[in-house]
Each structure stands twice: as structure tokens, then as C-alpha cells.
Amino acid sequence: MDNWQLPGSLALLVLVSSYFKLFSNVLAGFILGIFVTVLHYQLFYQLSWKNLVVDKPVKITARVTQIIKAGKRPYIQVDIKSIDKFQVKSWQKVYANLSADTDSIKLREGDMVAGIARLKTFRSRKNLYGFNTELYAFRNHVHFKGRLKVTFRVGDTNTLQDKYRHFVLGTFGEYKFGWLYYVLMTGDKSLVPKKEKEHFRMLGLSHLLAISGLHIAIFFSLSFLLIKTAVYPFKDVIAQSINIHIFGLVCALVLAGGYVVLSGMQVSAQRAWFMTFIGVLCYVMGARVSYTRSLTYALTVILLISPFTLLNLGLYFSFAAVASILWLLAGPVSHKSFEASWTAKCAWFFKIQLLLFLTLSPLMIFAFQGISLSGVVVNLIAIPLLSCVIFPALLFQIMVAAGYNIQLMSQLDHLIYLGYQWLTNLDYNWLEVGYISATQTAMIMLILLMLSHVLIRAYAVIPMIVLIAHKAVDTSPPWQINIFDVGHGSAILVEHQGKGFLYDLGANYFGTYSMFEKVILPYLRARDIQLVHTIVSHDDGDHAGGLPDLIKFSFEKTLNAFHGIPYRQPCGLKEITFGQLTIRSIWPSERQNDDNNSSCVVVVDDGKYKLLLPGDIESATEKKLTARYGEQLDADFLLAPHHGSRTSSSLPFVRAVGAKKTVIFSRSHNTAWQLPHQQILKRYLDAEYEIYDTALDGQIQIRVFSDHFEVYTARNAKNLWFLR
């Protein structure tokens, strides 16, 4: 939250409460929320010794919780028990992602290890519209990353949850859809293939990959029926004082709670269990609680236990979905639907799916920049199939597998897989919509909430007007420059009239993590930008690593203007018109003696403001450019050559580009090369440049207007107080 928002909101509530007593409860709740959040942070997240164990060798004992990447030098996640002289408190979780040097020791999940580690505070790249890795790490208590030299390993120390997951994996590992059954029973999505996640999203079935209220309801209902069936033959010998129905409900509640714990305590599962608990409690006590109060109580308990759950988008999906269903159930017609014909029941079920589609669409667009068109129809089949066939079959298979190695679901698995393959081949599954901001999403959800209540329906026009006004006054610049945070490397996108020019593609790490796919492509899709031209400065991996992915995602033609097809280096010297901009490559005239000095030097110009992109050229080439172009090198925005290395940014070049300008360093945080070099940094400061740095600022966006420009950074836009 930005610095002004918290005191501003509090001051507004105090002012309103002084005139309207109704808001006094809201103010009290707001103050309680602040107190609980700060207390929770200090108890469970804050480490007073954190800065005392980074950037130096420390002894560490930890339990391996996940093998992120196997191999000779595995990348693992560990649950730290002690670092140096500091013991982790029993109520805290401290995780670290580490590159492990294990020699001949083969690590497995559940191993307790000891060794020497060199840790750094967890920090990741920060880009607009991209996945917020730092926020994800905070929510999951990942405090560190670094390297570990393992000196000692203890064998199996698996927890009950680990053993349960291994058992489920062994039970369903041979099935075609084994990964799905594993997710449904454990909530662990680490084994879901990337391609299948995409397919489920396009089909509108992503909710099945999270342990939701549907799973808890099915598990609770089946447990209750099983317990009642098991107890029924002994009803005559059970004491009259024992209510078998209540006994079954309580036992099913306990079993469902165990399932919630074993499946990772996901927020939607917690919500469902708390609401079930309230329902069972009311039944036992003979009390009545409205659906709205039940939902509110569940939300209150979840936030009191973990206020940072508000950062989890799953919370909003879960509660919005249940609130819409309860709203429909509260209607006078819905109660009659349960006593009507099967046709009427099917129609009512279709209404639920349609309502869920409308309610959750804003959240879907915010999260994925699109919506599943087939979701309504597919869920009409998938949910009954899961509820009545798949989930009961999974539970039966689990019970059988506890004593016998028999695969009972082979035929069912084959039929489900065939239907799934047919669905994924359809062309109408997904509609790209584009990005909407968190503010716009909140306003749309507020409008839907107000429209649902007859007493305040007319007032929905107020947020509608605000939303339209916000859109009307949002003036886009004629063009803008995006310097992405891609770590050590570079990737710069120039936007103009809905089209894009891309300079460099960032790195591709181990062939599995591409900056083009993870950073650039999401931005293009979110902004609905048509990529027209691409220049790869030179073939070093930190600049050209994303080239295979550029081609894989059908952007090969964008290379044609400057590199030709097939792609070749160095770039050709030419000038092209890009709307009202001019893109001109001014170097090299021929390949130089090394890749760095063969970098394609590019100028982007609108007639008033100019951007200079020099790649990794070094001082010898800078001297040649200065001699050849002189004052023509003058530019308003400069990407620092070679990431701020002292082999580049010679004083004559810095002066030729011009004083009182803007320079951007594209580099990684805690780089091994210690970039930018202090001598180079001082050189730009002495020349009165405004300095930005992707390692410190995240993605840098320069919005260029006709008479001025504005600079925005992702860290200022997206940072929360506990991440600073």
C-alpha cells in the first residue's frame, strides 16, 4: 500500500464516523484489522536476525520440502530450523530456495540436511502485468535464496502430509490423468504439467485444480454417508442417548478438516470448512444463521487467523462464487427448484453456472486478461461428473490401495481422458479481453454487488459514472518506452499506436525459464500490442536468449526488417517509419572482432525526443560512433552500454549523448560483476544524468508526450509496505 493510502483511508473513516454513527463499527473494524495485521506480521513473518545471516557463510540445518529442479546441482526449497546461532521459533516458517552442492549425496524431499550456506534476502524481478514473485514468496514465507554446501544428511523425516502425498502419488501415478487425481486428493499443484494448466484455464476448469468448497462439500457428504452406512447395522445396540445423525455429522466434519489440513490449508477449503462447521454447530444447537452471516463469520475467522490472505486472489474467487450462489438460493424461486422436475433442476443448475460466469468474469479478466467462453457449458458436465463419479471413485481407490495394489479406475480414466482430448481441440474455448486494473476490477465487482440488492440498486450508477470518468480522463501518451526488468540482460519495448518495436529478448535460463515468455509476452498480451519489429542487438545469451521463444510464438516475421529471414547477425543498417516515429540502426556497418562491438546501435526518434539503444558496445566502438555522428548522438533517453560495465560509457560518449538526460541501467540485483561500476555511475552523475536502474526500480516505463515525459517504475507502482 502506498504511504498516503493508509492514513488517508483512516482519516476519511474518522471524518465520516463523526457525522454518521453507522460507520463507527466500520472504523472499529478498520483499526482492529490494522492491529491484527501488524501483530501477525511481527509474530509470523518478521525475523529480527535476518540481516545478520546474509552475504556470509553460515551454518544451517533444514528440511528439504521440495526438489524444484533435479540434477547434479539440484535447486531445492528447504524449511530452515536453524541458521548460525539463531533458532527459528516453533510458530514461524522460514523457507529458502537454494542451489545445492551435494557431491555424491542424493537429496529427497523430507531429508534433514546440514551444511554451509551463503544466503541473500529473497528478491526477484518486478514488472508491470507480470507475476509478482516477491509477493508469492512473502505469502509462502520464502525469506532467502542462495547456495548450500551439504555436509550431512539424515534420512526420511517426512511429515504426515508428505507421507500422504507420496501414498496418493503412488496410487494414481500410473493413470493417464494421474496428475489430476493427485491434485484433487492433495491440493499440491507442483506436478501439474504447464500445458495442462493452460488447457484447464481455457476450458474454465482451473477451479478444479484448487481444493475448493466443491471438494470439501463432496468429501463431507461422502464421509457422512459412509459413516451413517457403517453405523446403521449397530443402531439397535447403540445407546439411545447418542444421536447417530449428529455423530455422523461431527465425524464427517473432523474427516473433512483432516482433508483440509492434508491438502495444504487452501483458502477456499478453509472457507468451506468454516461454513460447514457453522452449519453443523447450528444444527446441534437448534439455531439458525443466515447464509450471509455464515459467509461473513467464515471470512472474519480466516482474516483473523491470517490477514495476509487478502493478498491471495483465490480468496476473492472463492467468496465471490459462494456469495453469488447464496444470493440465488435466497430467492423465492430457488427453493421450489429442489421439488420441481429434473428439467427445472437442470435449468436452475444452468442459472448457477451462468451467474458464476458473470460474477467471476471481472476477476478472470484481471488475473488472465481473458475469459473462458466454454466454461459455462463444460462445467455443466464436469461438476456433476466430478461430484457423482470421479471423486467417489478416487476415495474408493484410495481405501482399496491402503491394502491392495489394484487399479480400479483404468476404464474410467481412459474415458475421461478421451473426452478431455476432444474438448482441448475445440477452437472457441478462450476469449482474449486485455488487461483491467485492480481499481477497475474492484469497481466492477462493486457494481455487481449493488445491482444484486434491490434497496441500493439505483446507487450502482455512482460507481458506473466513476468507472467511465476514470476511463475518460486516462490519457495515453503518443508513445512510451518500457525497459523490462529481466535481470542481467536487456529487453526494451517501444509502444506506439497499439504496435510494438522490441529491442533484445532477455535470457533463457537452462532452457526452461525464458524472459521473453515470462516477462515480455504477458505484457504484449495484457496491453493488446501487435509486435511489428524486433532487433536482437547481438547473440550473447542475455540479449538473444529469447530468440527460440520469439519464433515459437509466431513472431519470426518481426525480425525481417533488420535481420532478414532466416535470421542473421549483425543487423542491417536502415531507417524505417514506425507510425510517427523513426527507427534507425546506425551501427555496425560490418561485423566487428567480437559480439559486443557488433551490437546493433539503434535510435528511436519522434522529432523532439530521442532514445538511444547501444547494446553492449565498448569504449573503442563508442569512440568511432562519437567521431562519425558527433552531435547526432544527442539523446534524451540512453540505455547504458554493457549494463554499466567500465569497459563502456567512456567520458566522450557520455558527453556526446548530452547532459541533463536520462540513463537506464538494465542489470540484475546482486550481480556477480558488481554492475554498474562505481566509476561509471559517478561519470553519469557528474554529467547530471537522471539515473534509473532495473535492479532497484524494476520495470521502467517512460511515457513520452508532445511537450514532456513521465517516468514510472514497477517497484513504486506495485510495492507493499512489507516488501520494501
Structural overview:
- It is found in: Cell membrane.
- It holds the Pfam family Lactamase_B.
- It comes from Pseudoalteromonas obscura.
- Strand 12 (508-509) and strand 13 (513-514) form a beta hairpin.
- Helix 9 (267-285) packs across helix 10 (291-305), helix 10 (291-305) runs antiparallel to helix 11 (313-329) and helix 11 runs antiparallel to helix 13.
- It is built from 26 helices and 23 strands.
- With 724 residues, it is an alpha+beta fold.
- It has five domains: 5-44; 51-157, OB fold (Dihydrolipoamide Acetyltransferase, E2P), CATH 2.40.50; 163-432, no CATH class; 438-473, no CATH class; 479-723, Ribonuclease Z/Hydroxyacylglutathione hydrolase-like (Metallo-beta-lactamase, Chain A), CATH 3.60.15.
- It has a seven-stranded mixed β-sheet with strand order 15-16-17-18-19-20-21. Strands 14-11-10-9-22-23 form a six-stranded mixed β-sheet. A five-stranded mixed β-barrel has the order 1-2-4-6-5.
Q: How would you characterize the largest beta sheet?
A: 7 strands, mixed
Share of helix, binned = 40-55%
Tell me the structural class: alpha+beta
Shape: globular
Oligomeric state of the chains present here: single chain
